[in-house]
């Protein structure tokens, strides 16, 4: 059976995860399956600070991106919308923040 054509960023990855990076920051990591997937995910015309800002409703200037080609990894960090474990915090461990990133449709080829 042939493998399905990837349609989302998550389809290119072994894992897409998010976690808190202290009480004030969220970090997300894309562990891409191979160099081809990394090439797509690391393409600054597709996945960039503006894309992340739109997905998460945050200021583009607050987004930090780290592309690590030797590991086929893209790491993204941004300030949490509310501090960890505060009254309005709905995800203490930031474990669900990765979902919009994982379901991001790939650019048309």
From TrEMBL:
It holds the Pfam family DUF4387. Residues 9-102 form the DUF4387 domain. This is DUF4387 domain-containing protein. InterPro entries: DUF4387. It comes from Streptomyces qaidamensis.
